[in-house]
Every structure is written in structure tokens, then in C-alpha cells.
Amino acid sequence: MNSAFDTLLRGGTLIDPMTGRHGVADIGIRDGRIVAIESTIGPDATARETHDVSGKIVTAGMIDTHGHIYEHVTGRFGLNADLVGVRSGVTTLVDQGGPSCMTIGGFRNFISNPSDSRVLCFLSAYLVGGLEGHLYPELYGPGQTNVEHSVRAARENADLVRGIKAHCELGGVSRWGLDVIRIGKRIAREAGIPLYIHLGQLWPMKEDAPDIDPDEIVRELMPLMEPGDILAHPFTRHPGGFISMETGEVHPVVWAALERGVTVDVGHGSHFSFDMARTVMAAGIRPYTLGADMHGYNVRVPSATDLDDRGRNPFAGVAPFNLTHAMSKLLYLGMPMDEVVATVTSNPARMLGMADTLGSLQVGREADISVLDHVRGRFTMSDNSGVSVEVDEMLAPAFCLRAGRMHKADSPLIPPLA
Asked: Which domain range does residue 372 map to?
């Protein structure tokens, strides 16, 4: 093929679960779109930029399904979108619950529009959204919701709003039961979009509240979940997740929900536990999507001036991570590479209802492409329960293309391989 390209990627290992492609190939890009994918694009082809990506993994632009990037509005919680996005090799970000029906306009104009990354969101079920990282549980009760306004905001911003976010955890249930979840489900159903549910204790229990059985919360929640809804934090180290406190096994009601078409998002964050992950995955459950869940309380932000306050925060984590670190943990836990890649490409594209435009390397599509280093050696990975494991392979971002534009993976949020 004798063509002039803007960018030519040569010799990478393309992995595209949506099309079933897995093999070495070249990609030609022109005017922000993929115009050629061939086993070898001839040596006479010309390009403004040619990149030898031999030995690297080339995927559709990675999608992080769990971000917190409503910078400034959510206080210390919100990270800069492009530091988490394109400068970390990720082309699409989904903010989980930062904007609400009251603040979606600001999210569009000050976060989504100016960012080089594609930025979407799941709208908060709560009027306040993610203000200061949900540090004030009194703001998140049923009296702080509005179904009509939230549905309208979701419909009027359908290009950005791909779902609704709510929390099902002990602290909230001790105050309001599952009322907020039912309201969130009503918003999602009326807007025609999925509901994304946080599992695992987040807030402290209400003072003088009676004891609550975490298993009972899960049993009450699961019948509310419908096909396409998402359960987050299956590997949480906090009570109220997939694993029964009584039996130490996966709740039967979780299996029933998954069989109905409910999906699972890792939502790594400060929640991830190797022990819980082993138990859940040994039972046969595989995550469908892999959200990193990075925020200002669980990663070290270079510009932060309040790091000493982190120890007082219930979200705070200790183990450095990002999306490719989380992918490496799934590899360690036994998921094949193609399945791991699917959790950040084809599967989230389907979850977002955008599989016709995202999540696959195909001629004619916008050139959203992630290039990863697949590093062999001996590395230590840790969770926030104090468990460390030795692994012999890691993934790390090299660079990405967003609509054909090159972005180096130079974010200071990328943790070193250790």
C-alpha cells in the first residue's frame, strides 16, 4: 500500500477483543482516523511520524470506567482529567458521581470540553454530586435527591451522561435504608441508562444505629438490579461486598444478578484486596470492566498541600496504582491478556452504549489508540490490606493517540514499576 499517513505505527502486537484480532500489524492514521490496518504496510508508505512499536501491545484507546476528575469542584477528591487520561495512556474517562443535575453544566464546560481526554460521566443520584469526596454523609440522604431534575439533566446531556451513580453501603443504610438506591434506580430507569452501585462500607455508621448485617444489605439490593446495571468493587476489603461475612463465599444473590445481565466493575481504588479477589475469581466471577478509581485521597498529587490530612480520610490508600497497575493485578490473578484488555476496551464501550465508536481498532474509526509496554522481570504489587505479591510481568503506558493526536505517558500520577 502506497499512501501518505499522518502517523504510522509499525510492528505492534494488536489486541482487539471486539474483532478477535491478536497479532502483529501496522496501523496507518490520517486526519484523526484509522485508515489502514495491515500485517505489513509497505516500506514505501510515507508518514509524517513513524513509530516502531515492536514488542509493545497496541489496543483500542483504553477506557477508565471509574474516575474522579471533577477537579476543584469536588475539592481534594477530584484529579486533573488529562493526568489520569491521555497523559496516563487512557483516551476515555468516566467520572463516577462527581457531577449532579445541579453541576453538570460546569462539568461540561470546565472539565469535559477543555480536556484532551474524552470525558464522560455517570451522574450522581444526589443533588450535591461528589462534593469534597463524599466526606459529609448527611448530604447524601433521600431528601437530597430530585428525580425529575436528575432525569432531565441526564436526558439533556445524553452525550456526556452514560449512567447514574449511587452507593449501597453500611454507613448510608444505617441512616436511610435502601431508599436512596431505590431513588437512583428510578432515575436510571426513567432516563433509560444503567445504574452503577458502590459496594463496601464507605461512611461511618450513624451514632446509636442498630447493628446491621452487611449480608442482608446485599440480599436486599440485588433484586433491584436490572440487566446492564453495574456492581462496583467486587474485590473490596470492606464489609458489604460480594463475599458473605457469614459463609466467606460469594452471595448466591450475586450470582442471580449476574445471570440476569448485571455486570461487574473492579473499581480498584483503595478497596482492592488480593484475598477477596482470589476468592471471587476462584468462584468463577470475572470482572467485566476495570475502573481504576483514582482520586485525590488515594494517589499522591504532586501539587497537593494537604497530604498530612490523608490519614484522617476513610478513602486513603497506601499502595500506588493506576489503570495499568490494576490490569497487571488481573494478569497475576490468572485472567488471560485478551480478557484483561477487554475490560478496558470492548467491554466498557458496550457498558457505555458506545460500542459503535469506542473500544475497537477498525478502519474508519477515530484513532483512539493506547500503546503499552509489556515488561518482564520481578516486581512487587501491594493492596491496601497490607498484602504484597511478587509478579513477573507488568503493563505500563507508553503513549496514546486521541483522535490521532499523540500524547506521551508522562503523568506524574503513573507509579514506578517496583
From this structure: 4-59+360-376+386-408
